[in-house]
Amino acid sequence: MKIADITFSPYPLFLAPMEDVTDPSFRLLCKKFGADMVYTEFISADALIRNVRRTEQKLHISDEERPIAIQLYGREADAMVSAAKIALEARPQIIDLNFGCPVKKVAGKGAGAGLLRDVPKMVEITRSVVRSVDVPVTVKTRLGWDDSSKVIVELAERLQDCGIAALVIHGRTRSQMYRGEADWTLIGEVKNNRRMYIPIIGNGDVTTPEGAKWCFDRYGVDAVMVGRAAIGKPWVFAEMKHYLLYGEHAEPFSFEVQKAIIKQQVLDSIDWLGDERKGILHSRRHLAATPVFKGISHFRDTRIAMLRAENRDELFRIIDAVG
What is the pLDDT along the chain (323 residues), one digit of tens a residue? Predict the structure, then answer.
């Protein structure tokens, strides 16, 4: 599969852009375990052109992460074009436009999934950015605003006509947020539309190797994007890739290896942020979500202690004591 001139290995697996999750340290771990492409956290076009420091930090990319997409969101074409040109300074392989974020502070202001209620403006933004940059532009969006306006089949054609190089579709509407099951039938309909010729990447509820294979086989997508299943478990890509290539489960990582990966993730976060406490705080989402300790009896108090640990030594003593 190719996106413009970027060639991917069979059964490409992409790491979804997630706010406060897909920072450089986590992206590198996912790359190590087999993610074919990673995305930055989504970046506000308005904040980027105002030189907001926290937003500019999201443009930090290492060569080991490539190929990488920088994802932008905004509600005005001029701002998105200006932000895309700034983002080019980080030399991404792809500029991705976020038309799928459902949270109120984004969609409620007419950006992200909010543009599903104003498709002409979405098209205007897309066409403007495509014309203004010299790297491939892709789009990530949803099925529609709600159950009564699932516009993705027609919308996909219109976005393709704007010149995008690939389309990522999350199998929910904005109204669903992250509730209920992702509906892949419309993703498959877009992929099997004879008028579509760009790669279609499916996203939503892909959590297991079997699930990833089902999406490739049943719906014919060109790539699968993995989001929440990677939080606290970056090696999920290794498990999926092995199953996709060989039709069997890989030898599972031992409990001690899994704990070591979690500890490495904490260390990487500390290094990235340059502050021990901030790095630990940033890691808590992964510690809370990781399946490493799932099923251990009477673990509740230990989990609370992990999430309350204030320094690396204290946290690692707690993790090491679990067995």
Answer: 999 999 999 999 999 999 999 999 999 999 999 999 999 999 999 999 999 999 999 999 999 999 999 999 999 999 999 999 999 999 999 999 999 999 999 999 999 999 999 999 999 999 999 999 999 999 999 999 999 999 999 999 999 999 999 999 999 999 999 999 999 999 999 999 999 999 999 999 999 999 999 999 999 999 999 999 999 999 999 999 999 999 999 999 999 999 999 999 999 999 999 999 999 999 999 999 999 998 888 888 899 999 999 899 999 999 999 87
Beta strands in the chain (DSSP E): 2-3, 6-7, 13-15, 38-39, 43-44, 68-73, 94-99, 137-142, 166-170, 200-203, 223-226
- Pick the catalytic residue: 30, 101, 162, 215? 101
The question of whether 30 is a catalytic residue gets the answer no
Question: What kind of fold does domain 2-246 have according to CATH?
Answer: TIM Barrel (3.20.20)
> What is the crossing angle of helices 300-308 and 276-289, to 10°?
150
Domain ranges of the chain: 2-246, 255-321
Q: Residue 139: left (phi > 0), alpha (psi -120 to 50), or beta?
A: beta
Dihedral pair phi/psi, residue 28, rounded to 5°: -65, -40
- Cβ atoms within 10 Å, residue 314: 14
What are 94's strand-pairing partners? Answer: 69
